[in-house]
User: Fold this.
Amino acid sequence: MASTTASSPRPAQTASAATTVAEDLGARIVQGLRPGAQLPSEARMATDFGVSRITIREALKILSGRGLVSLARGRRAVVTQPDGAMFAAFLSALIKSDPKSLFDLLQVRRALEVQSVILAIRHASRAGLAAVEAALTAMQAAAAEMDSGLSLDAERAFHLADVRFHEALALSGGNRVLTYLFEAMEAALYEAFSTSHRGQLLAGQTMENLCQAHSLVFQHVSAREEKAAVEAMSTILENAEMNLRAALANV
Assistant:
């Protein structure tokens, strides 16, 4: 029994080896494997890395937690399509633990939103602009419902449409990294817009004011007016900061 125990890898050793294998294997996946590709068998990878199959299993669990592979009993691990789930979870946890981190998000948005506008002006197709306009139309419809008091879900619909507006603007620019970031920020953006809305009410602003501000961005992007579009988006972000401060003043 003593001999068997001595020859078996200790949990700490296995964990350390699994982390090392996960880092190496993760780099290989990112650099050379497409989503949907199958990884080699556990036995083959154990031989390649010079570790036990237990270590390979632990490494795959680590990569699964990072969203790089999907695991199914009796099947080889498969490379997954990145979806920003880990980043989204991080943002949600950060905002939940400290709502004032919404200001950190806003600082990041200043750079991303401006770049999004510039790329949209330079590269957006008719279909891309149509998607932005559709989100704007949805915002306006939800705003009208909020004013009439006809729908209890109108506020949620408005913020969702607002998120779609910014996502569509990023997507229309054709930059895959920027699109990925906006998709990953979706839940965080919704929380930011919802919180900012409380500040809007305190400041006596209406949802129509916000619709007009977004409409101005769309008009300048459609007309390929870069400077004016950037200024219009910057105004939205400045108002967002003011409204966030008002909403979180007593938090």
Q: What stands out?
A: Residues 1-6 have pLDDT under 50 and may be disordered. The radius of gyration is 24 Å.
